[in-house]
Specification:
The chain has nine helices and no strands. Helix 3 crosses helix 4. The longest helix is centred in the last third of the chain and has 43 residues.
Length: 196
């Protein structure tokens, strides 16, 4: 279950980022953040994977954008963190239609006015999303507020329990994984046996 899922996620991050230490650091940040939010760890990881297209191996930038996507998803419960991540990616590419699904409006002309020296228009767009969200929420942390709701507390409890069970099962997982290699080798021997 969860150990196999985590292993797959870790392999994906290691491969996409090209740096095991940074991938591990990002995974740890996401797991820690999930344990304090109303969002499931898997949802945060899915959003983070999408944002890697923009952030590359920059862990801090990825976590920052995952938190921004979380705030956006918190204000529109019909949308996922991955939906919000896609809207952020679109905005960085100067496409603003999906932002409207989160009650955020940006225009290219407005961005040109707020662009700072040395900043790309895409960077200005990301800053614009942050500022529009802060304006919409009055600077309040919607994720923190939702984490205090029944569903938020239940999500946090599930994430913490799942993580505890995953850690408890990790030694057994490694044994089972090694056993699968042995079974695979036995099947190869059987296939090679002409009497089979």
């Amino acid at each position: 279950g969860s150990n196999a899922t985590l292993e797959s996620q870790r392999i994906t991050f290691n491969t996409m980022m090209g740096d095991v230490q940074k991938a591990t650091s990002l995974m740890n940040e996401l797991r820690s953040y999930a344990a304090s939010t109303p969002f499931a760890q898997g949802d945060l990881i899915d959003g983070s994977k999408r944002l890697l297209r923009l952030t590359g191996e920059n862990v801090d930038q990825n976590v920052l954008l995952v938190k921004l996507a979380s705030q956006m998803a918190a204000i529109n419960p019909d949308k996922t963190i991955s939906d919000a991540a896609e809207a952020i990616l679109d905005a960085e590419g100067l496409e603003f239609e999906r932002l409207k699904e989160f009650g955020l409006k940006l225009k290219r002309d407005d961005l040109k006015k707020m662009k700072k020296r040395g900043e790309t228009l895409g960077q200005t767009a990301l800053r614009g999303v942050e500022e529009a969200l802060a304006k919409q929420t009055g600077g309040r942390d919607v994720v923190a507020a939702l984490s205090q709701s029944f569903n938020g507390k239940l999500s946090t409890l599930k994430d913490n329990f799942t993580e505890m069970m995953r850690e408890a099962g990790e030694p057994g997982f490694e044994v089972l994984k090694d056993g699968l290699d042995d079974i695979g080798k036995d099947f190869e021997k059987l296939k090679a046996d002409p009497e089979f």
